[in-house]
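Q: Predict the bound structure with magnesium ion.
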Amino acid sequence: MMSESGGSTLEAYRARAESWKLPIGSALDRVLAGGVESGTITQIYGPPGVGKTNLCLLYTVSAVRHGKRAVFIDTEGGYSLERLMQIAGEDYERVLEMAYFYEASTFEEQCFIVENIEHVLREDFGLVVLDSAVSLYRLDRDDESVSELNRALSRQMAKLMAVARRFNLPVIITNQVYSAMNGSGAEPIAGDVLKYWSKAILEIKRRGEVRELVLRRHRSLPEGLSARFVITERGIADA
Ligand SMILES: Nc1ncnc2c1ncn2[C@@H]1O[C@H](COP(=O)(O)OP(=O)(O)OP(=O)(O)O)[C@@H](O)[C@H]1O
Ligand SMILES: [Mg+2]
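A: Predicted complex:
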């Protein structure tokens, strides 16, 4: 079975470090009782276009506004400077200075970036985003065996969990869901691997322009907590 590597050393670290939460200053913070938690991986999943990247950019801007550096790993080639500019507003230049944006265009590149992430991180980092964890995995699925890809994905998650603890920062990963071929509802990609490593799981749902963030897993909060929002020119607004 998968295990959280380096168990005892990392646990000792965690015991020493006080965990903290990164908010984005909206009703969505209430769903996580204050924000995304340091020292662990939070997964945001939902269908294409639902708002996952928007939330990741909001957390990145918020980290910078809290005086922290951030890493944003984009695997979709979809992260747009224009959208970042809209969300960051007058803090745009500071965000570009404080946040490190990396783009992976193959699953192999994604592995390389994640496996080497600790060479970038320092004390003053307050967030790591992997958006998304599985879009490239999905593209590679035709050439390689699923079990090999799952092992590589597990190694990435183990690394992210290790740096979350070592640097006491929140890690956010996103995961797309697609309608299953057989019509049995939406299915998260590589669901089991990501679920195993994500200690908090959030779903975004959409009805028209109104989106809803729903807590699906948390170790100390009730599942089902939720808040509605709309995406606006400057970011998001409560709905
Ligand atoms: N300036 C804006 N004003 C209003 N809505 C916007 C603005 N910019 C983007 N959006 C909306 O944001 C949504 C896309 O959100 P986002 O890119 O976060 O989705 P996603 O969940 O990351 O999708 P994917 O899985 O394809 O990456 C679209 O519905 C788009 O209309
Ligand atoms: Mg996206």
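A: The longest strand covers residues 171-179.
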